[in-house]
Amino acid sequence: MEIKITRTETPKAKPQGKLGFGKVFTDHMFIMNYEEGKGWHDARIVPYQSITLDPSAMVFHYGQEMFEGLKAYKGADGKVRLFRPDMNAKRTNATNQRLCIPQLPEEDFVEAVKAVVEVDQDWIPTEDGTSLYIRPFIIATDEFLGVAPSKTYLFIIILSPSGAYYESGLAPVGIWIEDDYVRAVRGGMGFAKTGGNYAASLAAQVKAHDDGYSQVLWLDGVERKYIEEVGAMNIFFKIDGKIVTPMLNGSILPGITRNSVIEVCKSWGYEVEERRISVDELISAQKEGRLEECFGTGTAAVISPVGKLRYKDDVMLINNNEIGEVSQKLYDTITGIQWGKIEDKFGWTVNVGK
Ligand code: PLP
Ligand code: COI
User: Fold this and answer.
1) By CB neighbour count within 10 A (0-12 exposed, 13-18 middle, 19+ buried), where does 247 fall?
2) CB 307 within 8 A of CB 286
3) Which of 39, 169, 220, 304 could lock 164 by a disulfide, CB 3.0 to 4.6 Å apart?
4) Nearest C-alpha neighbor of 71 from the set 63, 80, 79
5) Separation of 63 CA from ligand 2 center, angstroms?
6) Pocket of ligand 2 (CB under 6 A)
7) What kind and span of H or E run contains 257?
8) Which CATH class is domain 173-338?
């Protein structure tokens, strides 16, 4: 893929002080068009700018869009690393297939990410816990109000120097187990990374926030009995010394951090179970002192210890609302690999530039 690069003549000031999540954007962005019959074309890196779309553009009406999330890290050795970008490329195409968006060659996805990160590498923050959040996304741009797959699309990548996703940083978060609204059902698009899943989550998230909880833990859409995942992360429990997480069933996102945590835990000799977990099982395990730890996993959230789970009128306190041993060790190991501080035995990191 040939990428034409136009550099900005008016670079912006870099952010100072504590970085939040997803509020500041770099000097450049990647953009590429798709047109039926012509395929993906005109790959280019341009100064960060607004895009103009006709009000009838299909993405505004029927939500035909997808997005991804990954990060670039600058290590103490000055090297810039990505974490498993091939997995984001594969998941892009799984999402695209569900949403009738044309497939994007995996190597082009990775090449585009590398190219734009290289152009804006001076924006990668280096303070502890910070990174450059990368947001690739595709939108349907046909000017048409009929319900059908669009024939034209834009693929864009924007970059945002970011700190911790939760304001509390690595401190345990409180999570609200939602027993009324549901996020997704099997056969729907829960496994896909598309805006509609997040729009569907907002009403419950607002309710949880109003009650002082950081995010919502979804139950299955049919029986509202089995644990699925959290608003922006997959969920893990340590019960009776085993690591347990909901199996991939079509309605939860196949998280890249989830997959990495499973591999790391297995390499440490833990038994890892991917299976159905009922909310009743969790309540019993907690009452009997067998629920030892709970943590969420995600690109933005990294490893987020969960100290409190609320279900109806019950509040389950986990590990005394303190970060657990496995959660801490996983955080240190995964971020250690990402920052190049520890050996990457799994071959997960990919260098950008030299
Ligand atoms: N589940 C949901 C709903 C998410 O939005 C995310 C974030 O990307 C995840 C899980 C974790 O996925 P990953 O580890 O690939 O970032
Ligand atoms: C990510 O972790 O990359 C995500 O996409 C979560 C996002 C919804 C903030």
Assistant:
1) exposed
2) no
3) 169
4) 80
5) 18
6) 69, 232, 298-300
7) helix 256-267
8) alpha beta
End-to-end Cα separation, the chain, in angstroms: 19
Residues 6+ apart with CB under 8 A from 117: 72, 80, 82, 124, 132, 134, 159, 352
Q: Which of 135, 230, 253, 330 to mutate to test the pocket of ligand 1 (most atoms within 8 A of CB)?
A: 253
- Integer angstrom CA distances of residue 183 from 197, 298, 312: 7, 17, 18
Residue 249: burial class (beta carbons within 10 Å; 0-12, 13-18, 19+): middle
Tokens of 286: 């907690």
> Residue 146: exposed, middle, or buried by beta-carbon count in 10 A (0-12, 13-18, 19+)?
exposed
Q: Is the backbone of residue 177 left (phi > 0), alpha (psi -120 to 50) or beta?
A: beta
Q: Is 217 left (phi over 0), alpha (psi -120 to 50) or beta?
A: beta
Tell me the pLDDT tens digit for each residue of 262-312. 999 999 999 999 999 999 999 999 999 999 999 999 999 999 999 999 999
Question: What pLDDT does 166 receive?
Answer: 74
- Burial class of 139 by CB neighbour count within 10 A (0 to 12, 13 to 18, 19+): buried
Whether pTM > 0.85 for this model: the answer is yes
| Whole-number Å distance between alpha carbons of 87 and 192 | 13
Nearest-angstrom CA–CA distance, 154 and 144:
16
Q: Over the chain, what is the mean pLDDT?
A: 95
Spell out the domain ranges in the chain. 4-163, 173-338
Fold adopted by 4-163: D-amino Acid Aminotransferase; Chain A, domain 1 (3.30.470)
Distance of CA 153 to the CA centre of its chain: 22
Ligand 1: residues within 6 Å at CB? 69, 229, 232-234, 253, 255-258, 297-299
Does the pLDDT of residue 165 top 90, yes or no?
Answer: no
Top mutation candidate among 83, 135, 197, 299 for ligand 2, by most atoms within 8 Å of CB: 299
Query: What's the one-letter identity of residue 108?
Result: D
Predicted local confidence at residue 129, as pLDDT:
86
